[in-house]
Amino acid sequence: METRVLIVDDSATIRKVVKRVISQAGFVIDSFSEAHNGRAALEQIRQHAPSLVVTDINMPEMNGIELIEELKKDPALCDIPCVVISTEGTQEIIDRVLHLGIVGFIQKPFRPEELAPVLAPYIQMAVSAGTADTSDF
Amino acid sequence: MQIITSQLFDAVVKAAAEVFENMFFVSIEAAGEATVTAEPVVHAQIRYEGPHSATVHLYLPVDLAHRLAADFLGEGAPDEQLVLDSCAEMTNMIAGRHLKSLSPDARIYRLTIPQVAIELDPPMVPETRAFTTGSHLLRLALDVDP
């Protein structure tokens, strides 16, 4: 089963850093895709569901919370694990996204080399799950 | 209001110092009065709205912006668009950390999308302070709504 990671952030810098960190962490990732906001991510996901979504919250058009809400209310997509990486670190925001069913929350700022061990269990989870590949939907 | 603005600015400076340290392994040191330079700078800004509203401005010399972006990205020479994007993200993180430090009620603040551009002689807001990192001079400003 193909393992795909979708990185959603309006910052090309963060998308690039997250991709590099995951690539160098030793996991077998078949492909990465990127989206600059929740709406673009949702379109991609509906075309080809990834194994793991790593998303920011504060983005134009559709933010990360709205994206996760859309995924969770879609029976075909609700099992895709989501990790949030965001500056929005208030407990209320963290509680809100955890309540939505995300598997992890990482607060910015972060040192790139510190990201890999934090992301590792979530990537492993996605890989081990045999990937929730719903590309036929 | 002056005292409040000063306290807010201290909090922004603390947030900026943490972001520079955590992301880029560099420390910033206060360098007194900010003066306008003739050099072009990367000017990144982000506005937040809530019980008080303000805009955080960050002015970086272009060569410093390139160096910080390269270090963070792990690339030798990122293109200019990526450098600008890195500075925008830096400002986003400073504002986010600042809002979190204000109080648990920081949840009622709304952070907007950062703006960034290379500018020659951008106008300075009254509350602007200068800092050094290595041989570079950078400026940080907090423009609080009246």
Question: Would you kindly provide a brief summary of this structure?
Answer:
The complex is a heterodimer of chains A (137) and B (146). Chain A has 137 residues and is an alpha/beta fold. Chain A has helices at 12-24, 38-47, 64-72, 91-100, 112-128; strands at 4-8, 31-35, 52-55, 82-86, 104-107.
Structure overview:
Chain A contains five helices and five strands; from the N terminus they run βαβαβαβαβα. Chain A is α/β, with parallel strands linked by helices. Chain A has one domain (4-128): Rossmann fold (3-Layer(aba) Sandwich). In chain A, helix 1 packs across helix 5 (112-128). Mean pLDDT of chain A is 86; it is low at 131-137. Chain B has 146 residues and is an alpha+beta fold. Chain B has helices at residues 2-24, 62-73, 80-102; strands spanning 29-33, 40-49, 54-61, 110-111, 115-120, 128-133, 136-144. In chain B, helix 1 (2-24) packs across helix 3 and helix 2 packs across helix 3 (80-102). In chain B, strand 2 (40-49) and strand 3 (54-61) form a beta hairpin. The radius of gyration of chain B is 14 Å and the shape is globular. Chain B has a single domain (2-144), classed as 3-Layer(aba) Sandwich (Chemotaxis protein chec). Chain B starts with a helix and ends with a strand. In chain B, strands 1, 2, 3, 4, 5, 6 and 7 form a seven-stranded antiparallel β-sheet that branches. Classes of the chains: A alpha/beta (137), B alpha+beta (146). The interface between A and B is medium-sized, with 24 and 27 residues.
